[in-house]
Amino acid sequence: MSLLSTPFHPRATAADVLAGVDLTGQRMIVTGGASGLGTETVRALAGAGVRVTVATRDPGHAKALTEEFAGVDVAALDLADLASVRTFCDGWEGPVDAIVANAGVMALPTHQKNPQGWELQLATNYLGHFALVTGLRPALQAAGQARVVMVSSGAHLMGGFDFDDPQFVRRPYDPFAAYAQSKTADVLLAVGISHRWADDGIRANACAPGFIHTNLSRHIPMETMQAMGAMDADGNLITHDYFKTPGQGAATSVLLAASPLLEGVTGRYFEDNQESAVVPGGPGATTGVADWAVDPAAADRLWDYALPLVNEALQGVGSR
Asked: Which of 126, 179, 269, 305 is catalytic?
């Protein structure tokens, strides 16, 4: 299968991707839409006529977006807590044309758990989104041709999903290994949706936004940021030539969520607005999607691992 290409270059913005596209009448959800890449995703979608629901832990942070666009709504959602996900799903009415799973946490310095006992990065970045799309599956079906966008990261190339010890019970907790695992899980979720829900008209793809300065890196120690070349000795952020603006970083998410060019496309991984090749993951990999992240057997295994907990938490919301 040949790789899909689009006319958008790596520096294209989310607004560029939807220039001239009219999406009036569509409804979409953007998790973590009150800041960073999420905000730029919301702006581009709302600017094209979408009625966007910003799903965020602190609805107050989205006030500026609701004032900027009449078609932006806000709802409370804490992805780390499945009870909050259930409340959100219970309150949703009508179809949803796309869910952009954008919210996330990165490199938490200590081993923390969510109320259900999962390592917090895996719980927030993967499990909460899995519960969200599962709970809203009937709403996605009702849209006819719905899309799910999993915002992953090039960090997934650092490591696959450790099915033997996903919660860091026996192995020492490592902030970046935990983040990489959660981002691999995001890609596997898109793969799982693509072949399980295809008959429902639901398409799912994953993407990497690239290097962008946002508050996602707030938990990374200063010395680590300096070692990565992203901060100087005085604590000032360094923006290299390969870094993107938030608007440029959100472009691939918007492409997958709403561009007519991606109609019918599913189960793929994109970066810089183009489909990426499958590569062997590991320390030497810098671009592409790791083979372990698009393995259908691993996608099924992860789905079956998370489903019992999600079904228990969402019991009564809708058919799975």
From this structure: 179
Q: Are 8 and 16 in contact (CB under 8 A)?
A: yes
Burial class, 178, CB count within 10 angstroms (exposed 0-12 / middle 13-18 / buried 19+): buried
Evaluate whether 225 touches 175 at the Cβ level (below 8 Å).
no
Q: Look up 179 and say whether it is catalytic.
A: yes
Distance CA 105, CA 93 (A): 28
Extract the tokens encoding 44: 């581009």
pLDDT digits (tens, 9 = 90+) for 27-60: 999 999 999 999 999 999 999 999 999 999 999 9
- Cβ–Cβ < 8 Å for 35, 215: yes
Look up residue 62 and give its amino acid: A
CB 224 within 8 A of CB 218: no
Do 39 and 63 form a contact (C-beta atoms < 8 A)? no
Question: What's the whole-model pTM score?
Answer: 0.92
For residue 201, how many other CB atoms are within 10 A of its CB?
15
Beta bridge partners of 29: 53, 99
